[in-house]
Amino acid sequence: MSGQAPSISFGIQGLGVHIPERRVSNADIADQYGVDPEWIERMTGVRQRQYAEPGQATSDLAVSAAEHALADAHLSPRDIDVILVATSTPDQLAVATACRVQHRLGADRARATDVGGACAGFLYALKTARDILAASHPDGRTLVIGAETFSKFQNPANRSTGVLFADGAGVVVVGPSGPGKGILCSTQGTDGALADIVGIRAGGSAQPTTGHTVAEGGHYLHMNGRKVAAYFHDVFPRIVEELIRLSGLPLNEIDLVIPHQANPRMLRALSLELGISAAQLVVTADTFGNTGAASIPMALHVARGHGRLHPESTVLHAAVGAGMSWAGTVQRWL
Known about the structure:
about 35% helix, five-stranded mixed β-sheet, alpha+beta, Peroxisomal Thiolase, Chain A, domain 1, 11 helices, about 25% strand, about 325 residues
């Protein structure tokens, strides 16, 4: 499904992140996975990642990042109409993590819910936020949150996920913008036939928790790396092509390409094949790992901090997540 922006424009008015303090280098985990530190960097491009503390939940990271985003937008929690949290690692089943965030922020005017989509979840939530505002709150504002604590779901014996995924949170405030600014277009899609190649198998209604599912490691994140990589190589170019068509902007007029931060080695190689220059591409997974739904807003924060993101910058986002679901957006930075 694809779509142009509604007649009312909406864009990002504030940005905040929470990057956990616990730094985990390749040397810290290499022995655990039976490899050397150089192998991890050579195969993935990741040099280090950050982990939440044992007592921190996904909502803790989300609340901290949301407070920074509200301050950046010069808003209070009661200015927010909707809170959307994109996460694959919620605090618990049945209760949306967004509800915890709403209460702890004191955003008592806001309705709150979670959004799936895994690594593509932030872009799904961003489009949903735009659509809700256009339909119901044309003068309102939404918190769009990507937050993950993958370290709590890592299989200590599975290097395909253990060396790659990490923790963090990124939040944007979405509100009204001027014509021709903000979110210009978006595209989404899903191939449910591939739903089993990455995810957390146990703990839901299909495989309720038992001693057997725990013993089998069903509550850990699993990934068929070869199949995921093959799907990424197939769909990522199609996302970029569709966004170029929808936006009417040729690739050389896109200032920054900020994808979800999958394997950084793969991102750089595929982007080069597509004609995306190093000056356009933003890669942060080498220092943060793959933080799933949090990775795009975290990368936006880094790009802005490094002086690469300016008012009127055109930014293309593409993400591929478990499901398999994918999404893309082009925005003009406010």
